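ok posting inputs for the heme C job
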Amino acid sequence: MLLLLFLPAVQTCGGDGDPVEKVEKPAATTEVRRTDPLRGLKLYLGYCFVCHGQKGDGNGPYAAMLSAVPADFTDSTYFKAKTDRELYDFISKGGIAHGKSMHMKPFGFQLTRDEIESAIAYIRVLNRHERISRGEGSEFSGADIYRNSCVMCHGESGAGDGRVSRMLNLQVRPITPARLSEMSGAKLYNIIQDGIPADTAGTGKYMPAWGASLSEQEIINVISHIQTFGQ
Ligand code: HEC
Ligand code: HEC
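and the output
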C-alpha cells in the first residue's frame, strides 16, 4: 500500500503522441470561460474518472489505492461555494500547491487552458446533478476520438502504454488484430459503450463507459480505427 501511494508521483512526460504533451507550464488565466461540457466529459473519462469515478462521486477504480479521498463532484453544497477560478487554480496547480493531497496532480502541465475549462464545465454539470446530451450530426472521426479519449490509456498504437496507464502502473492488454478477432462486433461495441463490469478479473474496471459521450456512429468510427492497429 505504501508503495502504491507514491505511484502517481512518477507521472512521466514521455511521448505517447498525446496532443496535450506540448503544454509546458500551467496556463495562467484571469478569467475562466464556461465552455463545452461534452468535450469536458470526454476528457474527464480519460484523465479524471480513474479517481473521481464515472458518476463523479469520488469512487473511481483507483480511489481505494489512495491515502486521500478524491473530491465528490456530486456534493452541490461544497462546490457551490467554489468559484470557477478556484477550481481552475486547483486543477492547474494541483493538491500540494493548495496544502492538499499529492494524488491530485497539477494538470496544468498536461492539459491546455481550453481543456481545463471544459473539464470545469463538466464538473459543474455533475455539481448540478444534470446530464448532458450528446451532439448528434457532428460526429468525430475514429482517429480523432482515439486521440482525444483513448490514447491516454491504450497508447498511440494500442500497446496499452498511454500516459494514464503509466501513471497508475496499469497492465493494459494490447489491442491487436488477433485479440479483436476473438470478439464479435457486438461485444466490442458493448465494451466501448458500457465499459467492463467492475467484478471482471484484471484491469477491466479502468475502462470507462463511453455511452453518454460518444454517439453510435462515433463508436463505430473508433472501432474501425482500432481495427487498423498492427496492419
Ligand atoms: C490519481 C487520482 C486523481 C486523478 C487522476 C484526479 N484527481 Fe482530482 N482529486 C484527487 C484527490 C485525492 C482529491 C482530494 C484532494 C484533497 O482533498 O486532499 C482531488 C480533488 C479534486 C478537486 C477538488 C478541489 C477542492 O477544492 O476541493 C477537483 C476540482 C479535482 N480534483 C479535479 C480533477 C480533475 C478535473 C481531474 C482530471 C483532469 C482530476 N481531478 C484527476 C485525485 C485525483
Ligand atoms: C482510463 C483508461 C482507459 C481509457 C481512457 C480507455 N480505455 Fe479501453 N480499456 C482500459 C482497460 C484497463 C481495459 C482492460 C484491458 C485488459 O483487460 O487488460 C480496456 C479495454 C478495452 C477494450 C477491450 C480490449 C480487450 O482486449 O479485451 C477495448 C476494445 C477498449 N478498451 C477500447 C477503448 C476505446 C475505443 C477507448 C476510447 C473511446 C478506450 N478504450 C478508452 C482502459 C481505458
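notes: The chain is about 40% helix and 0% strand. Residues 8, 47-48, 50-52, 62, 66, 68, 70-71, 82, 87, 90-91, 95, 100-101, 103-104, 107, 119 surround heme C (ligand 1) (CB under 6 Å).
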